[in-house]
Amino acid sequence: MLNIVIFGAPGAGKGTQSERLVEKYHLTHISTGDLLRKEIADGTELGKRIKGIMDAGNLVGDDIVTEMIDNAIAKDDKGILFDGFPRNVAQAETLDKLLEKHGRKLTCMVSLDVPREELVRRMLERAKISGRSDDNETTIMNRLKEYEAKTLPVAAYYEKKGLHIKVNGYGTIDDIFSSIVNEIEKIK
To answer: Which of 163, 91, 152 is nearest to 116 (CA)?
Structure first.
């Protein structure tokens, strides 16, 4: 059973590649962003708190995210693609414990490597198309700083465990997907 983390900066293409990986390997897609946006759309008290945090370009607290992830792992019987989690080393350690609790382990972390200028361009373009309130230039720059300070160390964590796979995330969607699949097939 495959359990994969897809990783990269905001705008790296995690969502796009996640859809393809879920289809190819018949995985359950756990996107923390989707789970958080659902809470916001449902207008829950939690959703209202989350909206304020996300609109400021900050990351939602580990306690909220961990609870959502644990519930999702417990319900899964196919294998999981984690998209947007873990976002920091503490969450990576938590994910290892959650997977172990459910009798699983992580297969690999696929990291999409994209130049910063391209990330900004992609997110500004996405803002025009989707109208996402968290995609404006000020917030984008804040999100990239947050990513570099708090999230990027997760790659080193999985590198030490021999689970980190770095893929060039700049190119056509098909070429990037082929590179990811080639790497997964080597360890599957």
So the answer is: 152
Which CA distances in Å does 56 have to 51, 52, 147, 165, 173?
Answer: 9, 6, 14, 31, 30
Of 5, 19, 31, 12, nearest in space to 164 by CA:
5
Mean pLDDT of successive 10-residue segments in the chain (188 residues)?
A: 95 93 96 84 88 84 84 92 91 96 97 94 85 75 90 95 96 97 94
Total domains in the chain come to 1
> Rounded to whole angstroms, how far apart are CA atoms 141 and 121?
11
Residue 74 is part of which domain span?
3-182
The Cα angle at residue 118 between residues 41 and 125, in degrees rounded to 5: 45
What is the CA angle 27-88-100, rounded to 5?
50
Q: Identify whether 39 is part of a domain.
A: yes
Entry pTM: 0.83
Number of H helices, E strands in the chain: 9, 5
d(CA 151, CA 4): 17
Supply the residues annotated as catalytic: 14, 87, 126, 132, 143
User: Is 188 part of a structural domain of the chain?
Assistant: no
3-class secondary structure, 144: helix
3-state helix, strand, coil in the chain (%, to 5): 60, 15, 25
